[in-house]
Design a protein that fits this description.
With 226 residues, this protein is mostly helical. Helix content is 68%, strand content 0%. It has 13 helices and no strands.
């Protein structure tokens, strides 16, 4: 059974009467946790895509970039996306359940939030409603305001990203401490580390952009310190 079939079955259980708690309880153990992660991205992405009032082709395309979808799986993926939009559960409930599942793995929750930023920026415009949506999801995920701002700085091109914000540090820190923070981010965001956390292989591609941003920020800071 393909991952899309398993995801579709789980979401179908929601629409047939099972509670969100029951469905997520069934997905707690590996390898089904990767299904839970995918459902979270799909469900939250589908609900966020409507936060600015409409779902665009660009946002759907971005969803397909997060999850590389083979031609044979496109019908199943479309079914999943539509089921997520039809589900009556609010995004807060999805976010709360996924936080409970990955509470001891904050890096996985950050991975998920990054996928949502990717979808939000697909149409080239960061709507205030999308910002409010993502900020609330970050709050439910217990992601700090500083880390949320760092993610937003990387994805929202309203200004050049502040390299200190990207690395989650302040300019007052000694260069060696900033170097430690940079190395920690590099380790956490290495594709192998992401896959070890149970992130679907398709979503690991987002790490490539993340690593570029992290390394560029470090190079900018190091050059400034001279």
């Amino acid at each position: 059974m393909s991952i899309w079939s398993r995801i579709s079955d789980a979401l179908a259980a929601l629409t047939s009467g099972q509670s969100l708690a029951q469905v997520f309880d069934q997905l707690r153990a590996p390898p089904e946790r990767s299904v839970a992660f995918a459902i979270a991205v799909i469900a939250l992405g589908a609900k966020m895509a409507k936060a600015d009032g409409h779902v665009t082709r660009d946002e759907v395309t971005a969803f397909r970039e997060v999850f590389h979808i083979a031609a044979k799986d496109e019908p199943g993926a479309a079914k999943v996306f539509n089921l997520a939009r039809q589900d009556v559960a609010g995004f807060e409930e999805y976010a709360t359940r996924i936080h409970a599942m990955f509470a001891t793995e904050p890096e996985t929750l950050t991975d998920l939030l990054e996928g949502l930023f990717h979808i939000a920026m697909a149409d080239g415009f960061y709507h205030p409603n999308e910002d409010a949506f993502l900020e609330e999801v970050a709050h439910i995920f217990a992601i700090s305001d500083r880390d949320f701002r760092a993610l937003r700085a990387r994805f929202v091109p309203d200004a050049a990203p502040d390299p200190f914000t990207v690395l989650g540090v302040t300019p007052e820190l000694p260069l060696e401490e900033i170097r430690v923070a940079w190395r920690k981010l590099v380790r956490e965001n290495h594709p192998d580390a992401m896959m070890a956390r149970g992130v679907p292989e398709e979503a690991v591609r987002l790490a490539e952009k993340r690593m570029i941003d992290i390394n560029r920020a470090w190079e900018d800071i190091r050059a400034t310190h001279g």
